[in-house]
Amino acid sequence: MAEPGVETRTRSAVITARATATFDPVGRSVAAARAFVRDTLQGWGHPELVDDAVVLTSELVTNAVVHAGTAADVLCLRSEDSIRIEVADRYPEREIPVQSGRGIASPDRENGRGLLLCAALADRWGVDYSPTRKHVWFHLDLPQRPVGTRSAGPVLPDALLPVTDSRVRVAVVQIDQGGSITSWNEDAEELFGYASEHVIGKPLGDLAAWPHTPGIGTGLAEALRHSRWEGSYGLRRADGRVIPVYASHLRVRDASGEPSTVCLLVREDERAVLQTPQRPAADPGAESRATDPFEVFIGSPAPDDLDGLLQRTVERARDMLDGDSAFLLLATDDETELEVRATTGLPAARQRFARVPVETGASRYGSARMPAVHEDLAAVPGAVPLLEGTGMRSVVTVPLKVEGRLTGSLGVAAEASNRYSNEEALRLQFAADRIALAVESARLGELERLRRGSLSFLVEASDLLAGTLDRDQTLALMAQMTVPTLATWCAVYTIADPTSDPYLSYVLHEDEDRIDGLKALLLSIAPPDPVPAPGARLWTAPGDAAHRAALTASARELEHLGSPLSSGIDTALATAGAVAGETVVLPLVARNRVIGMLTLGRPAEDHFRQEILELAEDLSRRAALALDNARLYSERNAISQSLQRSLLPPELPKIPGVEVDVIYRAAGEGNEVGGDFYDVFPIRDDVYGFAIGDVCGTGPEAAAVTGLARHALRLLAREGFGGPAVLERLNAAILDEGARSRFLTLLYGELRPQPDGSALLKVVCAGHPLPLRLRPDGTVTPAAEPQPLLGVMEDLELYEETFTLDPGDVLLCVTDGVTERREGTRMLGDDGLADALGTCTGLTAGAVGGRILRAVERFAHAPASDDMAILTMRLREPDPSWTWRSWSPTSSPRAVRGR
């Protein structure tokens, strides 16, 4: 069965690549399937399809392994024009969710979401059934990639030609297959300040300041793998500053077939030297028509590259009005602010994504919704906030509108006053009207790609955060997910309780050399206020503190000029540059309480775009809940471990002539109190009691019975009761607990060392695994007989068994976690334990316990599912120099726990 009207085959297209994998029906398979699809598409050179493919695969594999409960087979096929991904499960009876009427099923339903996503994101999709399995498949069409297209621009007057420096420097950098620099020319040395011998062999990524925005464009590694690529990014100079560059990459191979990438780099404002104009095919009748010079430069139709479109728009607008600078701002969704997206001729401080209000005054000239001409900005300070401090005197601004809605603002400014009039405003408005729809279309396309990328990012983030309950690891994940994807640096503050001050818990910077300086700076200033209000808020304290530190270091440098002592100016300047951009704080709120703050920062003169802040806010909500879960788990774990320690003896007594060793291993993750316990204690002179038991279940109820048993044994034994009487009274005390009672298996005994080196033992085994006796000749025999367990019957009749341990004998007592160790259908059992003990002749008590533990662990590959306690007692061989009277009882810790 397939979706009506939807193609179910890849037509007759030739399959050019194929990859397949099978995933078991366990939760972690969903993340493994996402990684498989991502790696496959990246390897095939289609990173632009990764986000959609990962989201769809995640949903379909979840349906298979979680809801259908079967293994999932994922098949990736590449043809000449599309990617096809199939997810098959082995539950063919499961039908497509029924849709009522002609409408789509509700998104709030628990089933069918994967198919709804297929309908929304895939170009084609369907479902095929066979007698043994069901296939859900989807197609994603490959985008057209015109590579190496030749084009020629029109003949332009000299006044309209792009402006460059007196000498244009073109850096030529060659990158090998591993991403390392192999060639660096003289112009590269002049532009970036590095000598060739200092950069050759280093990865280009160490110098590149790549714009990391989920879903927008490609990463640096992908850009270097394309056969041809053009675009903008930044490169760090030797002095730490980032220079915006325009790059043209060409993939080549040498005579031996080794591929490499040749990168041509110029300053961003000289991009016309390398930029390939995207123009339609020549129209034979074009010369007969009047050509709009604005359209000549922009191209018609407008390209999908929003950044390139906006940059060409401001450059053409500046040239059209013979201005000194131009700028284009796009409106936010609520039309209350404008975000700088492209500038030319303005200082670096007016960088992208800075925001200004739409309304700056009460008059019509104070609103970006209307055209405005300011003949002299000196007479109306603050009229155009973007131009403050730039030296511009006159400016004309016009709105970009689509269907009456404000979508942006375009402006041209000049350093001279009285340069513009209403005539220039009309010309600029005409140009803005021509380009507004193309800009809005490209902006919506970019926004859609960003949102899809954000969805994929949040899916991965949620999966990573849900995979750990360790607090420190959660903090590290929070920072690593934000740097460098969302910000250049990140700091996480945590708040232990409502009365505590915020504490700086984690700091990360994309440049590891900056982390120490950044951490020292943040520790030197007061942390941000823990405001529970949602959303990002600006925090200027780090930038101000870094600026003051840089000034102090500069003054110290001048005072000690020529001195060999370092003033620390390099570190101060580097830290100041790292935090001089925009810094925002997002509250971490979980269960209606602020548990910390997530601080994100950009380097000098850089700003966050609104979509990134919204994504960071969504991430902070998920991270806050994960961090609080980790805190609760840690607290519960600490309480459980403390309670478990209180149920075990702090130390074991030293018994003359007897070696005593205990190994205790709690099963699970340590957040549950186990039911196994042991004890060795003096009863009276020359008599010692020992016990090992197992309470049914775990948790607080089992802990209550464990505590009752251990303390009751000591009290009753020291009151002079024998073994049967002690256990019978303990049985009555357990039954008195009523519904809170738990049955208990217990081995209790009394040991009295003898002058001849032997020991007299009296034992009662109430439902517990029998103790084993190992003789020096290797013989292993049970040392007691089974009797009824405690906590079940009221009238309990128990009896005591007496025997003598000779020098060299070993008595081994264990809980059922040892004897019931399983591997499939096999169980270690009493016979397996006896065989393991038989190999321990001649060993000390500690060595016997260690060998038994290793035998138990090696019996099965899976971790132990039950607690284990191993109590070993061995009588030493008699020492001729030792006398009974020379011994004085002392205590020494001998317990070995959790080895």
Write up what this structure looks like.
By secondary structure, this protein is α+β, with helices and mostly antiparallel strands. Helix content is about 30%, strand content about 25%. The protein has 19 helices and 35 strands. Strands 7-6-11-10-9-8 form a six-stranded antiparallel beta sheet. Helix 1 packs antiparallel against helix 2, helix 8 runs antiparallel to helix 9 and helix 9 packs parallel to helix 14. The longest helix is centred in the middle third of the chain and has 45 residues. The radius of gyration is 38 Å and the shape is elongated. The two termini are about 60 Å apart. The N terminus and C terminus are likely disordered.
Number of helices: 19
Mean pLDDT: 80
Portion in strands: 15-25%
* Rg: 38 Å
Largest sheet: 6 strands, antiparallel
How would you sum up the global shape? Answer: elongated
Helix content: 25-40%
Structural class by secondary-structure content: alpha+beta
Please give the number of β-strands.
35
Provide the spatial order of strands within the biggest beta sheet.
7-6-11-10-9-8
In terms of per-residue confidence, which ranges show pLDDT below 50 for 5 or more consecutive residues? 1-12, 94-110, 147-151, 212-217, 279-297, 299-303, 884-899
- The first-to-last residue Cα distance is 58 Å
